[in-house]
Amino acid sequence: MPAFLDVTNPVTGALIGRVPTADRAEVEAAVARARAARPAWEALGTRARARLLRRWADLLWAEREAAIRVICAETGKTWVGAYNELFVTDNISLYYSGHAPRLLRPQTRRALFPVFQHARVYYRPHGVVGLITPWNYPFLLAFCDLVPALIAGNTVILKPSEWTPFSAHHGVEWMHRVGVPADVIQVVDGAAETGAALVDTADCIAFTGSSAVGRQVALRAAARLIPYSLELGGKDPLLVLADADLDQAAAGVLIGALENAGQACTSTERVYVDAAVYAAFVERLRQRVPDLMLGTAEGHHVGSLTSARELARVEAQIADAVSRGAQVIAGGQRRPDLGPLFFEPTVLVNVDHTMQVMREETFGPVMAVMRVRDSAEAVRLANDSAYGLSGTIYTRDLRQGAALARQIDSGDVSVNRPLAIWGAAAAPMGGQKSSGSGRRNGPEGLLRFVTSQTVVVDRIPRALVPPGLTHLTPRVRSWIALRRWWLRFLPFLRP
Ligand code: NAD
Hints:
By secondary structure, the chain is α/β, with parallel strands linked by helices.
């Protein structure tokens, strides 16, 4: 008798459904089926695989309301939040189905002795990719990696979060419906043990989740010498410089901090404001927060949190900050009248880096605002973090903004719009420091799912280098000297 996971709606508390959990033997059996299905899937060719996944994206887009209902039900997020997951997934699918055939085309490279030697690089899939995903974007974070992994010729086992499995099931069912074979993409359900079993059996792991679990996954994958990528937590800074448009910056903080009720890896969590505009900026934020509408319907701004664990963590961080001298100037309370896990958008001021709210990831609608002397101090404090995922700078001087962005230690930084990286399917996204390693999206996000194989064909005539028993005969050494000369003085011949 298998064990089951109950999945509940965080807003109503109603049971949405149950899924059987996969034990180690079932994960191994799924991986074996996926391994057997891989040669035929690879032989289909990149173009045919890309066509199938474009059909999937078209179907999904046409029927998006059904997927939005599933996402909203198991996460408690707003209608717009769920729509965004589909919109970004669709954009990424269109990008990879259009560009993957070119990005994975065999390439000719210069060999040691061009003309006489011919080198060609081929891309091969790793085999069976294990995808382990979190609950905060249960659709987007499953399919933004699944689509490139499949197009690259891998077969995939997806282990979604135990809290939100149905979004992944929904999208995978539709893949089967457009003709992706059942063993090419399979879902296994369960919690930590199921995920660990997948890390122990797959040929490559793409993990999205917390930094603590990411570390364990990396150690397990390293012990097996399999490739892995980690998309982990963040503590993203937003800098408001003295010349910023304060209305635009205040709106940006609300969007960045309250996206998915603050339960986003790239949500704005630390706001550093130049002393010259601090008072005016905080006032704007204070005025705008009461206009925000809590609820999940279309038009609402802030939905429910998904888990009681995160709600408790948000409250503990606020209490810690207040006990160290911070002030709550807006929000700060639960809203049980709307649902058990709703929490008011909260603005904290007088914060500093001794407080948990400035050091640990916050998964809730909290904006911690700190006054800084100037942009140099803002950059120093932005970099004073264990994390390095994303960041934002508000300034009217776009050149200065782009230059400062390059001083921030994170995988991406946007100027004058938070979360701008999201829809940009061609631009790589990922973390530095404890925020992870590897990149999703762009060519980088596809190439992590393949390994290269170089084939070198030697055509050096026997007359030039007769067969010998050592590598470096006097004849070869004179060739090397000649090669050195042409590389030094004829740069266009350099490899
Ligand atoms: P989590 O680390 O608790 O779980 C993530 C996934 O890992 C789940 O499917 C879980 O079942 C599985 N898992 C748990 N223990 C495991 C183990 N020992 N071995 C293998 N798998 C295991 O994270 P979460 O609470 O689901 O998600 C929130 C976290 O994800 C936050 O830290 C957030 O910042 C991060 N996140 C990062 C990104 C990104 O792109 N960088 C995106 C979204 C969320």
